[in-house]
Specification:
The chain is of the alpha/beta class and about 270 residues long. It has one domain: Spore Coat Polysaccharide Biosynthesis Protein SpsA, Chain A (Alpha-Beta Complex). It has 10 helices and 13 strands. The strands form 3 sheets. The protein has a 5-stranded mixed beta barrel with strand order 8-11-9-10-12. Strand 9 and strand 10 form a beta hairpin. Helix 5 crosses helix 8. The longest helix is centred in the last third of the chain and has 15 residues.
């Protein structure tokens, strides 16, 4: 039922300067693969083959990565290194990639709204590539699609965090549903609250399933915290109608938008490869 995945990829990646001065943060590699490729692979494993990417100035490398490089392929054809392109070739063959530009950086909500022309009026997934998630048995998006199919409303992925970290995340409050210990009906959500104001320690991470009415809500959502259009504010409007489920996903998540998380992910995947 979920056919398209949106990747907001227009941000500047300022926490990784100067590396991101000319290189998109989504193209920073964990071992030999860029972050955005991990996200595309997760979406494909969930049965999604249409990738919609919101880019910006200086992001051409993303488009080039998901395209054929005839000169490079000619140079390594028949050699021992040809197999190194097998994974990216498979993605190019199985997926359709489309792109649009976010002209101004006005927050995640604005980035998602910019992708409306690529998505249309259907439910869709959202992946933030700098949240790298891993689960051997079932990817996070695949888990979330199962939740969506049950409840037929927007779904956000959440994880428990230390209370002193709430100022970095959108934080939810809700009630467990259907006797589960990992699925909540969201009642409230706050963008980057101080620990004393946080409604819980359940933080939203970079995985969403959104229903298409989110676009109409975003068009009428005023700028919120930081002067940006926050997806949290738009989701809160859906939550007021009981139409947001928060799912505590199974798996491991690395915050690769931070240097510490990026290094942790690199070391973890390196050990796993041995």
């Amino acid at each position: 039922m979920i056919k398209k995945c949106l990747f907001p990829a227009a941000g500047y990646g300022t926490r990784f300067l100067p590396a991101t001065k000319a290189t998109p943060k989504e193209m920073l590699p964990i071992l030999t693969k860029p972050l955005i490729q991990y996200g595309v692979e997760e979406a494909l494993l969930a049965g999604i083959s249409t990738m919609a990417i919101v880019t910006g100035r200086g992001k051409r490398a993303i488009e080039d990565h998901f395209d054929i490089s005839y000169e490079l392929e000619h140079q390594i054809k028949g050699g021992s290194k040809e197999c190194l392109l097998d994974e990216i070739r498979a993605l190019i063959e199985q997926c359709t990639f489309s792109y649009t530009r976010q002209i101004e950086m006005k927050g995640l909500g604005h980035a998602i709204l910019t992708g409306e022309t690529l998505i249309g009026r259907e439910p869709f997934a959202v992946v933030l590539a700098d949240d790298l998630c891993h689960n051997e048995e079932m990817g996070v998006l695949e888990q979330m699609i199962e939740v969506y199919e049950k409840y037929q409303c927007s779904v956000v992925a959440i994880e428990e965090i230390p209370l002193d970290q709430t100022h970095k995340y959108g934080v939810i409050a809700g009630k467990l549903v259907d006797g589960t210990d990992d699925t909540y009906r969201v009642k409230d959500m706050v963008e980057k609250p101080d620990p004393k104001d946080a409604p819980s320690n359940l933080a939203i991470i970079g995985r969403y399933i959104l229903t298409p009415d989110i676009f109409d809500i975003l068009k009428n959502t005023p700028a919120g915290k930081g002067g940006e259009i926050q997806i949290t504010d738009a989701l809160l409007e859906q939550a007021k109608q009981g139409n947001v489920i928060a799912y505590k996903f199974k798996g491991k998540r690395f915050d690769c938008g931070s240097v510490d998380g990026f290094v942790e992910a690199t070391n973890w995947f390196y050990r796993k490869s041995k």
